[in-house]
Design a protein that fits this description.
mainly beta, 2 helices
């Protein structure tokens, strides 16, 4: 399941991942598949539960018309391939292929004319120690569209996916193994902006800095039936 949320913000001027942290940072993005030639994994490694849904956000700090794409490689970054141009390649409205191979999780994410975009992406339910999430910006305003070329910017996230036999209770703010009524009330207050997320970080299960209604429902379920 992929849920798309786009938030327009003031345009500053390329593509910088804000969350999760990118492999090389927002200024290293011009060479595929991850920003620089001969790239290696960095110390910015995110460990996530297999099959988890995470928030991915980025800032288009230089505005270019086009779209964004998110892809996943279970073993390094050699499965990523640039999308091809299907027609109109010498103009400013090219037809670019989408979902070109099985590595692509989400494609055709609309451009927001600069500023911040955020999506929710469900990762594959597998275990991997050297997996990579790739976010690219495909630009239309530099004809002709060719690959490799200067029509794509690249950012990558180094991941580790592992399955666990147990998980913490969602909304267990004091880490005592259960979710109380008081903790549920606190989650509601956080969702309304009356308390900071830091007051109950276990309630922010997707790590996007907010408490959404789905996260409150998950906490209610754990309050009623306990955590497995």
């Amino acid at each position: 399941m992929v849920v798309l949320l786009l938030v327009g913000a003031s345009a500053e001027a390329h593509l910088e991942l804000l969350s999760p942290v990118s492999r090389y940072g927002g200024n290293v993005l011009k060479v595929g598949p991850c920003g620089m030639p001969g790239g290696e994994r960095s110390s910015n490694v995110l460990e996530v539960e297999s099959g988890a849904t995470i928030a991915v956000s980025w800032n288009e700090y230089v505005d270019h018309p086009g779209h964004f794409r998110i892809a996943f490689d279970a073993d390094g970054d050699d499965d990523f391939a640039d999308p091809l141009c299907l027609s109109g390649c010498f103009g400013r409205e090219p037809e670019i292929e989408t979902y070109s191979d099985e590595s692509v999780l989400l494609d055709g994410i609309p451009d927001t004319a600069g500023g911040t975009s955020r999506v929710q992406v469900t990762l594959p339910n597998i275990e991997c120690e050297r997996c990579t999430l790739q976010v690219i910006q495909v630009m239309y305003d530099k004809p002709p569209y060719v690959t490799p070329g200067n029509d794509i910017y690249y950012q990558c996230v180094d991941l580790v996916l592992r399955r666990t036999t147990s998980r913490p209770c969602r909304g267990d703010c004091d880490d005592d193994g259960r979710v109380s009524i008081a903790e549920l009330v606190l989650l509601v207050r956080i969702s309304l902006g009356l308390e900071a997320v830091s007051a109950c970080e276990s309630g922010d299960t997707d790590g996007d800095g907010e408490i959404a209604i789905g996260e409150i429902i998950g906490a209610v379920n754990d309050s009623l039936v306990g955590c497995s």
